[in-house]
């Protein structure tokens, strides 16, 4: 390391920004090499974002399936009747009816370990019947 040169800490955000910058630069280089106008790069960047959203939605759908399977295989029968749906591209929602707040909490905890960076909305209703 050279004297007088301070190294900046590496963070996930800085690495992500560097990768995105390189990808955009490479895409613009491809556009230029193909003889297209520079503003075509905007379309390439848009496709990159759409691909990311699509991959995130796909990952969330796989997660939804795993969460529903975790409930179906749970030893508490009341949890097997609950459903898990996608709420948006960042969250899942648990729905259904159970007989106690304890079961509502158990349903949430059965899925929580699968979530990663996604959020969970617990809309399970508690009914005395």
Which keywords apply here?
single chain, alpha+beta, three-stranded mixed beta sheet
How far is the first residue's CA from the last residue's CA? 70 Å
Percent in strands: 15-25%
- List the uncertain runs: none
Overall average pLDDT: 75
State the order of secondary-structure elements, H for helix, E for strand. HHEEHE
Output the strand order for the largest sheet: 1-2-3
Number of helices: 3
Number of strands: 3
Q: What number of structural domains do the residues give?
A: 1
Nutshell version of this structure?
With about 130 residues, the chain is an alpha+beta fold.
Fold and architecture overview:
By secondary structure, the chain is of the alpha+beta class. It has one domain. The chain contains three helices and three strands, in the order ααββαβ. It has helices at 12-33, 40-72, 101-112, and strands at residues 83-86, 91-98, 119-126. It has a three-stranded mixed sheet with strand order 1-2-3. Helix 1 packs across helix 2 (40-72). The mean pLDDT is 75.
């Amino acid at each position: 390391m050279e004297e007088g040169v301070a190294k900046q800490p590496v963070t996930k955000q800085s690495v992500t920004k560097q990768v995105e910058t390189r990808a955009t630069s490479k895409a613009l280089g491809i556009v230029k090499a193909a003889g297209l106008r520079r503003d075509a790069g905007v379309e390439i960047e848009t496709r990159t974002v759409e691909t990311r959203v699509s991959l995130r939605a796909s990952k969330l759908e796989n997660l939804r399936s795993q969460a529903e399977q975790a409930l179906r295989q749970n030893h508490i029968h009341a949890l097997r009747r609950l459903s898990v749906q996608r709420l948006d591209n960042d969250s899942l929602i648990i729905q259904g009816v159970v007989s106690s707040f304890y079961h509502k909490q158990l349903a949430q905890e059965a899925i929580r370990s699968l979530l990663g960076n996604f959020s969970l909305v617990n809309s399970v209703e508690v009914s005395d019947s």
